[in-house]
Amino acid sequence: MQFVQLTRDQRRAFAADGFLIVPQAIDAAAVAGLTKASDRLMKSFLDDPAEIQMQLRQGVVQEEAFDQLVSNSATIPLVVQLLSPNIHLHSASVIYKKPQDPHTTEARRGWHRDIGIAEDLGQAGLPRLGVKVCYCLTDFAEPNSGMTMMARGTHLNETPLAIPTGAVDPPTVVDPLLRVGDAILFENRTFHTAAPNLSQRTSKVIIYGYAYRWMKTDQYLNPPDQRVLQRTTNDIDWQLLGGYYNVDEIPQALIDWAKQYGVNPPSVTWTTDAL
Q: Which distant-in-sequence residues (6+ apart) come within 8 Å of 170 by Cβ?
């Protein structure tokens, strides 16, 4: 995995907004290969006129064409710097959304935070535990094209998301305008929801979510698929796909990588002299 520095402006933007756009995170050849594989996985959905939206999780990491995303150099170095080297792939999904009837979609929203920790800990004082990377296989050049809407700055909320009476979105709503090949990173605390797809084509994205290794993975990633691990060509992919299954095992692959580029977080001191 090549090194990409998380710039000061990017860090500030992510800290302020709860999300970050990475232009052209995958090139045209990668988009073509990923789209071909995704279309095959989603064939039953594409062939069913009654289905409008589908999120597929099962079998995603097993798809060899997706191997290139596991440690994508345009995005994952940023994730490591936003979290730490002690991470793994937490979830993986392909999401397709067909064009929708504008008269039946306006009231359908599902604003939420990811990972579900608020149900146990409440809304206040939640930590950043994970970052999702959403890769665009289609253009989202206009609002309401099916991209995930973000509520800017709501990762810092310590109360439920406030939506004006009679509205469906908060005042901070952002419907990101993205091009095919772009990626958007967003963290678990950022309130987000699916946008309606009022375009004339099916919207297509792949989302790979990363979290600390002590966070339980999606059921389709647990336990790690040994066939997928055997297919890896480098230690970083092996780590991210669950190779260090024991959470107490040192995640040496990304620790060594981060040390090489000077982005390891400071070590924690467990005791100190009392004054």
A: 111, 151, 154, 161, 162, 163, 164, 191
